[in-house]
Amino acid sequence: MKSIKEQLIDQISGKCIHFNGISNKTCNEGIKYEDVRDESERPYRFPCLKRVEVGSCLLAKFPTKEEAEKEAIEIEALQNKTVNAVVLVKEHIQKTGKKVGSIQCPGCGGQLNYSTEQINGHVSATCSSCKMGWIE
C-alpha cells in the first residue's frame, strides 16, 4: 500500500500543470475543456488527467517526479502548519473561553483571527498576513 505522500505525488504528477479545474471553461493556457474532452463515457475523460489515457492536447505538460515531490513536501508542510494552528486556537478557546478572538499565527507571526459557530462549536480562522485558514 502506498503512503499518503506517495499517493499525493501520483496525484500531482497525473495532472497537467495548466489544469485549473473543469468547472472553468478553459485551462490556464486557454484550451477549451470541451474541445479536448472524451465524451464517449460519463463522466467525461480529459487528456489533462493521466488516470486514463485519452485524447490529446498539444499543450499538455505534466510535472516531473522531482516537481511533484517538491509540491507534495510543500503541501505536507502547509497541512502541518494548519493542524498546529487548529490545535493552538482550540487550546486558546478552551483556556480563555473566548469564542471570537485572535492569537499569534504559528506559521508567520501575524494575527490569526478566529470565531466559533454558536450552533455547532465549529471554528473558522484566517491569518491576516499569510492567509492560512480553515473552516470546520
Question: How would you characterize the overall build of this protein?
Answer:
By secondary structure, the chain is of the alpha+beta class. The protein has a domain at 78-135. 34% of the residues lie in helices and 14% in strands. It has helices at residues 4-13, 33-36, 65-96, and strands at 100-104, 111-116, 123-127, 133-135. α1 crosses α3. The model has no long low-confidence stretch (mean pLDDT 92).
Fill in the keyword field for this structure.
four-stranded antiparallel β-sheet; 136 residues; 14% strand; alpha+beta
> What's the SSE pattern?
HHHEEEE
Question: Which secondary-structure class do the elements indicate?
Answer: alpha+beta
Largest sheet: 4 strands, antiparallel
Report the radius of gyration as a whole number of Å: 20 Å
Q: In which order are the strands of the major sheet placed?
A: 1-2-3-4
Give start-end ranges of low-pLDDT stretches.
none
Task: Report the count of strand segments.
Answer: 4
Taken as a percent bin, the fraction of beta residues is 5-15%
Specify the number of helices: 3
Span between termini: 29 Å
Q: Share of helix among residues? A: 25-40%
Mean pLDDT: 92
Q: What is the molecular shape? A: elongated
Brief account:
The chain is built from 3 helices and 4 strands, in the order H-H-H-E-E-E-E. The protein is α+β, with helices and mostly antiparallel strands and 136 residues long.
Write the layout of secondary structure elements.
Layout: H1 4-13, H2 33-36, H3 65-96, E1 100-104, E2 111-116, E3 123-127, E4 133-135
Helix pairs in contact: 1-3
